[in-house]
């Protein structure tokens, strides 16, 4: 039962992240990328600290170290994604970021020697094909921005992998607070390095970054961390790829983007990938 509740929780995360694309667009109209990251992770660190205040009193060095690793991976992923977006198209950026789905199981194999199930691989490949149908238009030549975005996908893959491993050993609240605090500190340093310290934010911009900090980051990463205790990293990555489906859905509903047969096909393939991956036998028994 906990496993299926965890899967439902991860699906909820993808729905919220799908809405985050619209919030990011609104915030970017009056804020720079590192301003958004700094404010978003500052809000997340403060809120996560308040939520976890009792647990933080007894933090162990191992928990702090694990949370820092998660935070470095998360910051690197977001930073590379933002910088990469300046040199490539949003569609390529979205597709290449989604390649973390196929990277995660190979990280688990290389580090833990964890067996990759055929159905898990099939699900990962299908999800990439689905995201390609949703995102890609025109030719697919690779440039500097594409290379940076590929590195961003590696960052997200490590964040998912670290989350799956550490949440089985340490407390989710502590891991999340340290993760957000680490991401905030690194974002703040980057803010000064890239001289993005002058804020001229509109009311809509503040609303957009408020959604990103409170809902897309604090709530979603807390849910993700709690749920990955019961869902292995490969399945979690495939389920989280549904973010692109809900991102497309919100674009159609809110931004009045035209729904095409290609979008429908891509969404259905991703949904099928999620179903197939959750029929797969895992290398280690799930906790129930």
UniProtKB/TrEMBL annotation:
It is found in: Cell membrane. GO terms for cellular component: plasma membrane. SUPFAM superfamilies: Multidrug resistance efflux transporter EmrE. Its main location: membrane. Residues 6-135, 144-278 form the EamA domain. It is a multi-pass membrane protein. It comes from the Bacteria. The chain crosses the membrane at residues 38-56, 68-88, 94-112, 119-136, 142-162, 174-194, 206-224, 236-256, 262-280. This is DMT family transporter. It comes from Candidatus Blautia stercoripullorum. The lineage of its organism: Bacteria, Bacillati, Bacillota, Clostridia, Lachnospirales.
